Amino acid sequence: MTEEAKGPLTRTVTVVNPQGLHARPAHMVVLTANRFPCRIEVVRGDLEVDAKSIMSLMMLAAEKGTELLLRAEGPEAAEALEALVALFASGFKEG
Q1: Which domain holds residue 31?
Q2: Tell me, what CATH number does 22's domain have?
Q3: What are phi and psi of 68, to 5 degrees?
Q4: pTM for the whole structure
C-alpha cells in the first residue's frame, strides 16, 4: 500500500510561543511545508487552511495555547508532519 493510498496523516500541535502564530512563525510554517510535495492543511475548529499559504495561516488567529490539527496527504506526508511538529514544539525559537 502506497503512502497516498493510506489517506491523510494527522498530528495535533499547540502554539507555545508567546505571540502566537504571527507573521514570522507563519512564514516559517510556509517555508517548512513547501519543502515537501504533499498537501498540508492546518485546521482550527471549522477553519481548514493551506499550510503553504501565509495569508491562509494568518486567518487562523492562533494565539499562545491554541491547539491546531496538522493534516498531510501524499508523498513525504509523514516527514512533513515531523518537521512541522518540531517547528511548533520549538516555539519558533521565540522567547
Answers
A1: 4-93
A2: 3.30.1340.10
A3: -125, 145
A4: 0.91
